[in-house]
Amino acid sequence: MKMMMYRLYIIIGMSRYMKKYSKYIIDTHVHVSRNPYALFKMPEEWVIGAMDKYNIDFCLVSNGDCAECGHDRVLRDKKSFVSQEDALIADIDFARRYPGRIGLCVWIRPLTQGYSKELEDIIRENRDVVYGLKIHPYHSDTAPDDAKVKPYLDMACKLKLPVVSHTAADDVDSVVRLYNAAKEYPDIPFIMAHMGLETDNKEALKYLGMLDNLYGDTTWVPLSTTLEAVKLYGSKKILFGSDLPIDGLDTYWYNRKHEPSMYREYFDNLYDMIGSEAFNDIMYRNASEMFGISL
Average pLDDT over the chain, rounded to whole? Predict the structure, then answer.
């Protein structure tokens, strides 16, 4: 009983502490999934529960049900299929049930569907809750600079939607492939989610400074990388993101092995290392300005 009370005290303390330095917190990298055959369990309730528990003001959500390939990069079974249009409609309902708290990044399906006028029409009609596009090159086996993605990027340019893309160690989702897309579309902000997952982030740091419209997020990114990015390029190049609720409702507190999450370092240490202005840039101001999020 004492241990349970102690853990409750710690969690409540964390909820309050996460707002100690930042006026607001925007998490730019959040997911949901509703399909029972989804790659990850990420129900809406975990997203809202974590926001309440850890005092998060706004989350940009993309739909993991749109993953086209599995972890082995093999096309997924038909029973797991959810169209990008149907997924977006479900997400719009989610956003409208939590006004001012949930915004959407539309997860696209370039491999098995491709751009559709129906998708663009849904986005246009719901532009108040749609803030960006999400590319997952690994789970679509399609790079951001692939011809199949170009119609989506044309749409993003037309609708002024920032583009968030998973980046990692292999070719299809490498930082270089996203750099190529960002260079072709200089009017769209592109965000390197993970800044090269499962790498030392050095390539991502190099490319971060090569284009004005290329940014990084903090999702699974060591604090040392974020500090280096701020040192090299200032605080306007990085946005806070977490992959909530990939490790469960307590993603901000524990990883999937129930070890302390790396995000604790961001809340415990980053403010003292970079100061108030830079800290607030990363935690909410950059996202608010880039995506047009009003708080």
Answer: 93
Residue found under tokens 């090269």 = 196
Classify the phi-psi angles of 45: left when phi > 0, otherwise alpha if psi is within -120 to 50, otherwise beta: alpha
Convert the pLDDT of each residue in 88-110 to its tens digit.
999 999 999 999 999 999 999 99
Contacts of 248 (CB under 8 A, 6+ apart): 46, 254, 256
Q: What is the pTM of this model?
A: 0.94
Category of 31 on φ-ψ map: left (φ > 0), alpha (ψ -120 to 50) or beta: beta
* Cα separation, 259 vs 261, whole angstroms: 6
Residue 109 CB partners (closer than 8 Å, separation 6+):
66, 68, 83, 84, 140
Taking residue 292's Cβ as centre, other Cβ atoms within 10 Å add up to 13
pLDDT tens digits along 7-60: 443 444 455 446 667 789 999 999 999 999 999 999 999 999 999 999 999 999
Give the type of residue at 218: T
pLDDT for the residue 22: 76
What is the pLDDT at residue 5?
39
The angle subtended at Cα 201 by Cα 235 and Cα 207, nearest 5°, is 65
Using CA atoms, how far residue 44 sits from 56, 67, 81, 122, 251, in Å, is: 15, 17, 19, 21, 14
Length of the chain: 295
**Residue 18, pLDDT score:** 61
Of the candidates 163, 174, 168, the one whose C-alpha atom is nearest the C-alpha of residue 220 is 168
Task: Give every CB contact of residue 46 below 8 A, 6+ residues apart in sequence.
Answer: 244, 245, 248, 249
3-state SS assignment for residue 49: helix
Owner of token pair 């990298």:
29
